Amino acid sequence: MSEVQSVGVIGLGSMGMGAAKSCVRAGLDVYGFDLNPQALEELGSLGAKAVSTNAVEFADKLDSVLVLVVNAAQVNTVLFKTDLAAALKANTPVMVSATISAEDAKQIEAKLAEHNLVMLDAPVSGGAVKAEAGEMTIMASGAQSTFDALEPVLNATAAKVYNIGEAIGLGATVKIIHQLLAGVHIAAGAEAMALAARANIPLDLMYDVVTNAAGNSWMFENRMKHVVDGDYSPKSMVDIFVKDLNLVSDTAKDLKFPLPLSSAALNMFVSASNAGFGQEDDSAVIKIFDGIELPGVESKQK
Amino acid sequence: MSEVQSVGVIGLGSMGMGAAKSCVRAGLDVYGFDLNPQALEELGSLGAKAVSTNAVEFADKLDSVLVLVVNAAQVNTVLFKTDLAAALKANTPVMVSATISAEDAKQIEAKLAEHNLVMLDAPVSGGAVKAEAGEMTIMASGAQSTFDALEPVLNATAAKVYNIGEAIGLGATVKIIHQLLAGVHIAAGAEAMALAARANIPLDLMYDVVTNAAGNSWMFENRMKHVVDGDYSPKSMVDIFVKDLNLVSDTAKDLKFPLPLSSAALNMFVSASNAGFGQEDDSAVIKIFDGIELPGVESKQK
Asked: Could you tell me which CATH class the domain A173-288 is placed in?
């Protein structure tokens, strides 16, 4: 399998758009696909070879595919409901970077194999800024030949690529365990800031103390800034962590393994979603706490 | 109140020893007190004016006191059971840097006031390395004149001093909320690494992924290294977080505030202590999980 010259990027949200731009910058022939015409226009103006709502249209041009949609259902839709898998050239490597379960990853691999396509189980992390800079973290499993074939895409989009092993599903599992930490850290940040608000500690000061001390986390620093600013416009969303912590819970169920903190954190995000904050920034999980005043949010004190 | 020239450092554990050394380096006259003769010898050889198991002995030499013991009971013992408070010069500022409840801080302030002494409610963070470097984070409340008087000690020991306000108890509360995050992050790190072990993900790889991605925390990076190395020799201890998360729980109880994650984390540390790991490194909280093999630890699989 020779190295790829072209890549179809499916899903031009914050991560996919960043990855697509990074591929353009690296000199790859980039074909962009999304249902959002604004995203297509943006990528088109930045040097993509072509953009479309329908990836099948350019299937014969694609040496590789990068799928950066939200969940397993969307991966299945874009690959198999649209006939894309059937239209791609044999042996085209398909890099699946959505956060999905190990079981879903294995099922998608099997379906790709029916079309003589190979898969890299390659979830990503790092956020929109890192994606834009071509500095995502990729935690991947698959055949070494698939890693080799996708090297130009991996180099263009990632600062760090972990090769976890051959078995499809390992990449998904590592990402899910990563999301366990991400989700618990956001919920813990919310719990701490809510307690600070209840104790009449100024939240900007609390934020400043924590971010300069051993209680800090990447998520605390990034997300609790939104709480301090009272800005819950969605960068990531509460419902993303409802999904991801449910994937954590499914993984634990399969392994019969107890997860006291993840279970509590999942319950917090579900409560937030149920209270109507599902489409707000994930930091809005703090709104489940009653009896506190938050910057920019009306008091819930009854 | 003029600036202090001498300081009595009471409690020469990892944090107190680091603070005492930093004061020596800054040119202060340092008097060190501890029950451990080795600690006294070490500080004596590094330029302390005097060291002793009995702080009362040098009470008339002290312009200021820094108390860096483990809990409120020890603070009360060293200040009031030894007659030190009675022996100190009037208006001597006493910087209380143990992690204690807001209520304990207020009671200690009242007792110091009976002896015409003033208190800075000044918990610290940063770990032994930062203490040694004179770069602790100090989150303090008290009268501005007490901050001013202690400036030489604060400058010598801290990279960052937060002035949270006048009221004694605010410093304690901010530290307790900080410990909420620290404790939950250690427990979350343990939960994630335990799940990784159960899913047959190599722990060194999992550690490497997380520390290069958005799931990272200060505590994950610092403490899960001990798990990867299989080294549970105590830097901090499980029982310290049993104590600190109980302080978090007491604070929440006073404020009638629910803390789903902290409660779960407290239960994990209590389980670890109850299983016999109280005196091990706090990362040993991971040993509560059955059915996994950890580096350097015999399997608990039954």
From this structure: mainly alpha
